Amino acid sequence: MSESNPTKNKDPLHGITLKTIVEYLVDKYGFDTLGQEINIRCFTHDPSIKSSLTFLRKTPWARTKVEQFYLKSKG
Predict the structure, then answer these.
(1) Measured distance CA(60)–CA(38) in Å, rounded
(2) How far apart are the first and last CA of the chain?
(3) Which of 43, 17, 20 is nearest to 30 (CA)?
(4) What region, left, alpha or beta, does residue 46 occupy, with left being phi > 0 and alpha being psi -120 to 50 degrees?
(5) Which of 16, 20, 39 is nearest to 28 (CA)?
(6) What are the pLDDT digits (tens) for 12-61?
């Protein structure tokens, strides 16, 4: 049986790094709006991309919120 239709990965975030997501959101919305939309301290208190990435990589619930907001903003 030949496989003419390879199965596609159904994960919409497949191949997209957290850094790409955060940079996109910061470019599109800025830290002020991100802090209002996603009430996470890394976006509201002395925010930077580096500190946000560090926090999000260690905090699964926060990363999930950011990924969901990214998907919503792209959809």
Answers:
(1) 14
(2) 36
(3) 43
(4) left
(5) 20
(6) 999 999 999 999 999 999 999 999 999 999 999 999 999 999 999 999 99
Q: Write down the pLDDT at residue 75.
A: 84
Q: Is residue 56 within 8 Å of residue 66, measured between CB atoms?
A: yes
What predicted TM-score, i.e. pTM, was given to this entire model?
0.85
Instruction: Tell me the C-alpha distance between 18 and 66, whole Å.
Output: 9
- Please give the CATH architecture assigned to the domain spanning 18-74: Orthogonal Bundle (1.10)
Cα distance between residue 62 and residue 75, in whole Å:
20
Could you tell me which of 44, 48, 43, 56 has the C-alpha nearest to residue 17? 56
